[in-house]
Design brief:
151 residues, mainly alpha
Length: 151
C-alpha cells in the first residue's frame, strides 16, 4: 500500500502538468495567430498555414493528456487525504471508473505501484507532446526568415 506522503508527492508532481499545459496553450495560440489569422484576412502564406495547423493539432493532443493528468492529480490527492478510508475510497473510485467506462474492469484491482506508474506515464506523454510542439515552433522560427529571402 502506498503511503500518504507518496500519494501526496505524486499528486503534487502531476499538478506540475498545469504549467506544461499553459506553455502549450501559448504555443497553440501563437500558431493560431501567427499562421492562420493572416490566412483568413487574405495576406497569409499557404506554406506557413500547414505548420501552424500542426502546431494547433499537437496542442490539442497535449491538452487531452493535460486533462487526464489533472484528473489523476486530483484523485491521488483525494485518496491521500484520509488514510483510514483509503481502501474503501479506492474501491469506490474503481467502481465509478468502470461504470463510466473510463477504465476497463480488468484494471480495477491494480496495485498502487501500477497506478503511480500509469500516472507518470500520462505526465510523460503530456510532456512529450509539448516537446513535439516546441520542436515544431523552433523549426518554424528558424525556417520562416529563409522564406523572405527565397520569395
Amino acid at each position: 500500500m502506498a503511503s500518504e506522503m507518496s500519494l501526496l508527492l505524486i499528486a503534487s508532481l502531476l499538478r506540475r502538468g498545469r504549467q506544461l499545459d499553459q506553455l502549450s496553450t501559448g504555443l497553440t495560440l501563437l500558431g493560431l495567430a501567427g499562421g492562420l489569422l493572416p490566412l483568413l484576412i487574405g495576406r497569409g502564406n499557404l506554406l506557413m498555414a500547414l505548420p501552424c495547423v500542426l502546431l494547433i493539432l499537437f496542442g490539442l493532443v497535449q491538452k487531452y493528456w493535460a486533462i487526464r493528468v489533472a484528473l489523476d492529480a486530483e484523485l491521488f490527492a483525494t485518496l491521500a487525504a484520509d488514510p483510514t478510508q483509503r481502501q474503501a475510497r479506492l474501491a469506490e473510485l474503481d467502481a465509478a471508473l468502470v461504470e463510466l467506462h473510463l477504465q476497463p474492469a480488468t484494471q480495477a484491482a491494480r496495485p498502487w505501484d501500477a497506478r503511480i506508474l500509469g500516472a507518470w506515464r500520462l505526465l510523460r506523454l503530456q510532456a512529450l507532446w509539448l516537446g513535439v510542439q516546441l520542436f515544431l515552433a523552433l523549426i518554424m522560427i528558424l525556417v520562416v526568415p529563409w522564406f523572405s529571402f527565397a520569395g
